[in-house]
Amino acid sequence: MTVAVPIVVNVLKRLKIVNDGTSDQWHRGLQLLVYTVVGATGLIGVDFGPIDTVVTTLAEIAAQLLQLTVLFKGGPVVHDKLLRGKPVIGETFSILPAP
For 28-86, what is the HEC assignment? Predict the structure, then answer.
């Protein structure tokens, strides 16, 4: 359940409800709220197994999407900023003459 707290804080930041400087306070407050609710309902006897499984699956999907985002956004940046114009194994395939 607590894996959803950073996601909620980031969504609230996107919606301009949480300011950049206060996100740590929001995170701690929401974590405290989650622990309190889970603890109180655990004393009553509520089973969070199915909900925890769903939240874990959503977190895994979010991690995969983040990896894809880094792959698709980072690849062109690495090419443009680091590799453009550099010879590949001693040779260049660009129109410009080799330095």
Answer: HHHHHHHHHHHHHHHHHCCCCHHHHHHHHHHHHHHHHHHHHHHHHHHHHHHHHHHHCCC
pLDDT in tens, 6-37: 888 888 998 989 988 898 899 999 999 988 98
DSSP code for 16: T
Token pair of 63 as six digits: 């991690």
**Burial (0-12, 13-18, 19+ Cβ within 10 Å), 38:** middle
Residue of 15, 60, 23, 69 whose CA lies nearest to 6: 23
- What pLDDT digit, counting tens, does each position of 50-86 carry? 877 888 888 899 889 989 988 888 888 887 887 777 7
Q: pTM for the full model?
A: 0.48
**CA dist., res. 68 & res. 62, Å (int):** 10
